[in-house]
Amino acid sequence: MNDLVMLDASQLVAGFRQRTLSPVEVMCAVLDQVTKLDSVVNAFCAIDEEGAMSAASDAERRWMQGEPRGPLDGVPVSVKDLVAVAGFPTRHGSLTSSPQHEGEDALAVARLRRAGAIPFGKTTTSEFGNKIVTDCPLTGGTRNPWDTRLSPGGSSGGSAVAVALGMGPLSLATDGGGSIRIPACWSGVVGFKPTFSLVPAGKAASWTALSTLGPITRNVRDAALVLSVMTHEDIDRHSGIAGSSDSWADYCAGLDDGVAGLRIAYCAAPAGVRIEPAIEACVRQAASALEALGAHVVESDVTPLADYYGDGRMHSVQWSVYFAQRARHMEAAHRTLLDPDLKALADAGEQVNTATFADALLARHALTAAMEAFFQRYDLLLTPTFHCGPPPVPGLPARLRTAPALTAWCNQTGLPAASVPCGFAGGLPTGVQIIGRRGGDALVLRAARAYESARGAFPVPGATLERPADGMEAQP
């Protein structure tokens, strides 16, 4: 694999500044990587090569003049196809969508572009982000970079696969129940779901009242850098340094301050969730690594989650109602084009009565309050990101059709959470999930960085990929 495409954003920017790397050279390498690999894994649904190369040339000119636009000038970034990017259609993975190109960027994308990043392609998603694998009627299935017989997870699978395989170091994705963290876990990369609404989502990306925009990257520092850019309203275009806006938060500041003295709860297996032993062992090692760095790690059953799992319907009720609402506004002919999984979800939502929906919202409020009290006692919480490995392509097994047990509750409570690779289970990557209190994004990233540094470099997928022959899919 070309070493150039595996450089992270910070390394690229350093190379541009020192004039040892060229934005044009980097973009050419990334586009070449897409050409070589994407026919196998199907991570992209749209690429703008001409626009990308033009933007890279402009970035190179700015670096040569010593006037970079911002802290990401010349860095390629892909964007999940639920988020608007000027010059691309936003298809949502749906045959019901319009192929008309967007006239302007979503605000988060506009901030990335203003910082110099180059949005060069749209990544695949399940239809409207409805499930934890990445397949849809419009673009088909996306495959895992470590084993192409398997799913990379979803619904941001295209973003995770692109980053894992060097098809750009950064991707902007969405998470409504685990859609950033799950594919990050199964693809061996970092996924960060910020505190709810910290990153501006706009109406299109937040219509479920559960979804949040966040980065998928190869390391924690890049995630912090992207978050800083997307939450900052005014970046000085010449220096790339924060302006005077009160909204500025530099999530890279203090990133290497470590975890000494932090109170960290470790939940090996929340009530009612069976964690595969190999995954539990990897996450336990991560907890031990943080303890060795000076954190006070205490094993906890996280009592509020026992009630969440005991009921089990809080997330699924809301999720189905929101999709029913989405489908209700479609023409009858369009509804027949929907993914059968999405149609079944919407049909289930149609059957939810007002009292049941209100109960789910009240339960959401109660869980949020209970977790706020929990985080008065602890600074952070560690859990596995997912309880098992990825399913085969195509399809989603019935056992995985419920709300993702370890991730969806963070969307209910609006808490920040990161998935960081912590080892291999059955030959495939798995992740530790680090969760903080609302607004504690910087601390989550700091702990993720501390663990990442102690763990050392994580392997990357092999240089060659083979698409399984028909009938040779992996078995569940």
Automatic annotation (TrEMBL):
Keywords: Ligase. It is an enzyme of class 6 (ligase). One of its GO terms (molecular function) is glutaminyl-tRNA synthase (glutamine-hydrolyzing) activity. Its EC number is 6.3.5.6, 6.3.5.7. Coiled coil: none annotated. Residues 26-445 form the Amidase domain. The keyword Ligase applies. The keyword Ligase applies. InterPro entries: Amidase, Amidase_CS, Amidase_dom, AS_sf. Belongs to the amidase family. This is Aspartyl-tRNA(Asn)/glutamyl-tRNA(Gln) amidotransferase subunit A. It comes from Caballeronia udeis.
